[in-house]
Amino acid sequence: MLIAIWAQDKNGLIGKNDRLPWHLPNDLRFFREKTVNNTLVMGRKTFEGMGGRPLPNRQTIVLTKNTAYQNDQVLVMHSVEEVIAHSKKTETITYIAGGSAVYEAFLPHCDELYRTVIDHSFEGDTYFPAVDWNEWQLVQQIAGTMDEKNQYPHVFETFKNNKDRAE
């Protein structure tokens, strides 16, 4: 199963200089709860923007066109097809975790989407790619709790793909 997971501001912004433009502990907790003991796929820039280390208790796949790229702590793959073939062989869920080009490449293959929408505008340089929302059904929407550490209104949304998944 392939699931894209991301947080965005109300304008679809997802990044600034290969990092998140906000700090929202509720979303970080949501991301951890969903992805722990599963597989994460991200592009090289996203991986390096997180410090170049895999997150604990997750298998990390770094997707890159750079065939010379090596990192002994992660699996390095060079195509969407290679990642999909790997995901079919594993018993874990494969989460697509960015950046924008990686999301765009995997959206046609995703079974579900987990989107956190932050009701605030931030400055940045990376946006989530266009989505044909007619292909997706919103199945869950949960308002996030605001407090001194989570200062922006936010909602966690789950979408399921409407298309027949005869892959």
From TrEMBL:
Residues 1-161 form the DHFR domain. It catalyses: (6S)-5,6,7,8-tetrahydrofolate + NADP(+) = 7,8-dihydrofolate + NADPH + H(+). Keywords: NADP, One-carbon metabolism, Oxidoreductase. The keyword NADP applies. Its EC number is 1.5.1.3. Coiled coil: none annotated. InterPro entries: DHFR, DHFR-like_dom_sf, DHFR_CS, DHFR_dom. Pfam families: DHFR_1. It comes from the Bacteria. SUPFAM superfamilies: Dihydrofolate reductase-like. The keyword Lyase does not apply. It is an enzyme of class 1 (oxidoreductase). Pathway: Cofactor biosynthesis; tetrahydrofolate biosynthesis; 5,6,7,8-tetrahydrofolate from 7,8-dihydrofolate: step 1/1. Belongs to the dihydrofolate reductase family. Key enzyme in folate metabolism. Catalyzes an essential reaction for de novo glycine and purine synthesis, and for DNA precursor synthesis. This is Dihydrofolate reductase. It comes from Candidatus Enterococcus moelleringii.
